[in-house]
Amino acid sequence: MKNYVAENERILKEWRNVYVNNNQSKYPDCTNLHEYFTPDGIMFKGEFLPDRRNYSDGKSVFRWKRNCSGEENTLWANAPMRVLYLTKDQNSYGDVAWDVRSESFRYRDENYKPDEMWLDTGVAFYRNLVYSLYGILKTTIDQPQDYNKFTDKDALSFVDKQIFARINCKKEVGNDKCPDDVLLDAINRDKSFLERQINGLDADIFVCCGYTQSIPDTGNRMLNLLNTIGYHFKPQDEEKWIFYDSDKNKVAINSYHLSYLRFDYVGMISAYHEFLKKHPAFSESHRK
What we know:
By secondary structure, the protein is α/β, with parallel strands linked by helices. 34% of the residues lie in helices and 15% in strands. It has helices at 4-23, 72-78, 124-138, 152-160, 180-189, 191-201, 221-226, 265-278, 280-284, and strands at residues 41-42, 48-54, 60-66, 83-87, 165-168, 205-209, 234-235, 242-245, 250-255.
C-alpha cells in the first residue's frame, strides 16, 4: 500500500525549508518563520482535543482540534471516493499558522463538548465545507441530497467519519482576503511543489474553491492549475459547475470560495447529481 501520508510529509518538509530560506531576507528579525507555513493534506481522524490559541494582539480563542489517529493513510488508500479540497490560504488573522489537518469544524466554546455535534455555522468556510462534503459523498444517481433534508448534526456526524483532504495553494498564512494576484504569484512560484503534493494524493474529486467570473479559462485558479499539471478537465454543464477528465476518470467541481456568503449548495450538488446520471460509470468505478 502506498504511504500517502509519509510522501506528503516529505514534500511539506522540503517546501517549508525553501519557504524559510527564501523569506529570511524579507523578515530578518523573525526567528520562527516556519510557524507561518501552513501544513495540510489528509485530514486527521483521531481524538478531539481542546486548544486555546493566544494571539500576538492579546486575543485568546478556544477551539476543538482533532489529533492524528495513525490510521489516515489506510483510510485514504481504501476510500471509495477520495475528495480533495483545493483552497487559497489560511486566514490566521495575521498570526502564526495551525495545522489544517487538525480542524474539527466545531463551535469554538469550551462549554460545548465535541460529541454534542455543534457545527460552527458562524464560520461560513467550515459550514460550507461540511455541507458540500456531505452532499458530494451522500449523492448517488438515485439519491440527490436536498439542502432542507439534513441538519447540522447530520452533516457533522457524517463528515466526522469520512476521510478527505485539503490543500492550500498558498502555504504562507494570510488574513481575511487573498487577492487574486497574490494567489496567482504563489501558484506560479510553488507550482512544482503543488504538483507533487496534489498528484501524490491521487484524489478522485477535486473541489476547487475559488470561482471568479473574471478569471480566464475556467474562472478558477485551482482548476486552471490542475489543467497544467497533467489533467484535462472539460466542462460538463452549461453553468460550468462540473468538469471531467475522461481519461483519468476524475471530477473537478468549480466551486465558489467556501467563505462566500451566497455559496450555492443547491447549484453545486444538483449539477453533480446530473453529472452522475450522465456518467454512471464514474459512480460504479468507485464502489468498494
